[in-house]
Structures are given as structure tokens and as C-alpha cells.
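protien #1 (seq + structre)
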Amino acid sequence: MSAPESPYGDALYSQPATAARPPAAEPAREPPSSRVPEAAVVSLWVGRMLLWLVYAFATVAAILLLIAFFLQLTGANPAAPFAAWVYRGSDVLLTPFRSLYPTAKVHDSRSVLNLSIVFAIFMYGLFAVLFATAVGWFDHWIRGLQARGFYGSPATR
């Protein structure tokens, strides 16, 4: 019996079926002499933890400074316990930016537009983004080395 032909003119089953053999296992590679030290992997995890701490700090700082900005803008009583607490907390965060911009009184005597607070919020956010970029670059670098076989993946260790 002849093998059935395909529409292209060749026999579909012209060769006898053989059991698929698994490819021969490659001999184990010797690790390159320029392996990335385990300290680089540890520093990657430390960098990620520091990144989360920086994000947490920047978020808390931005929220506290934003509340202080709106309290000053609306002319909140600084003797009120909540306003005093917010002003005390934001005072430490504003230290590097104090008197960077002049404060402007809004229509009444208690409302103040303090642009130093807005600049501080921007700078803390920028610091967090730059730190995240640095950690992301370092992570990408380590993963590139891992893909090229300079050290094993964390799951295989």
C-alpha cells in the first residue's frame, strides 16, 4: 500500500515513524571565572528594601506636607492640636527648603501661600523616582548577568 499523497505532490508519510528520542544532555558547563559575587545579589535585595522604605518615606512626607499646605492656605488655627501636630511634623521635612520662596499672605491675615511646601513635595517625589530608577537599572543589570549565565537564578540556589 502506498503512502497517501498531499496536495503538494509529496507523500505524507514517506518515512517510517520512529519514536522521538530526547536530545542528548549537554555536559554541565563550568562556571565562568568572572562570576558575579553573591554580594551583588544581596545588594539587589537590600536595594529593593531600601526602595520600599524610600517610597514609604516619600509618601508620608508628601501627605504630611500637602496637609500642612492646605492648612496654611485655609488659615487653620495653629493652636489647634491637629494643626500643631501637622506643623511640627512638616517643620522637620521643610528644613532644607525653608525660606526658599517667599510666603504670600492671601486675602485675610491668617491664610498663607507657602510655595516652599510645594517645592518640598516635588523634591521628595523626585528623590523617590530617581532612587527607583537607580534600583531598577541595577536590577536590570543583575538580571542581564543572570540571563547570560554569570550566576544561577535565585530559584535554583
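ok now protien #2
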Amino acid sequence: MSTESRQTPQVPAPDAPDIQGEGNYEAARRYDKSASDFAHSGKVDEAAQAAKPRDIKEADQMERAERMGKAHSKGDLKEDLAPQGAEQATAHPRVKP
């Protein structure tokens, strides 16, 4: 068997490579543009209001999910490092009045 038959065929590089591994540059550009467009759209406050919990139960679920996420923190942000078992205030400022 010759070595030529065992070699992987060379594939020419595309004109606009979709670089993977460290990241997809085109997807990152689309995300950045989309985030910037949204930030300048004037709809941020409306979206923030729509994202508020509708009741105490939903607020509790959101806070529990936030604590679970912060439990995986590397400690980059001091506020992510609450003492173990410490409960945050039970007043739910995010609940719509």
C-alpha cells in the first residue's frame, strides 16, 4: 500500500473561514452587533420590566437560580462570595407591585 493512498486529502481553505476552537468570529460579530443594536433601541427598560417576576413564588425561584449560579463562581466578583448557607433578604424588590 502506498503512503499516498493513506494521506488525508488537502481541503482548500474557504475565503471566509468560520474559525472554531477559540471562537466563531462571525458569530461573535453578529452577537456584538445585535447586543449593541438592542442597547440603542430604547427597549431595554421595557424588556427589564417584562423580565421581572410576576409573584413571590417566581421571585423565590429566580433568586434560588441566581444563588445556584453564583455557587459556581470563581470569586471574581466579591458579591458572588456570600457565606455558605447565608440567606439574602427576603424582601423581593424585583416583584412587580
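The chain has a mean pLDDT of 77.
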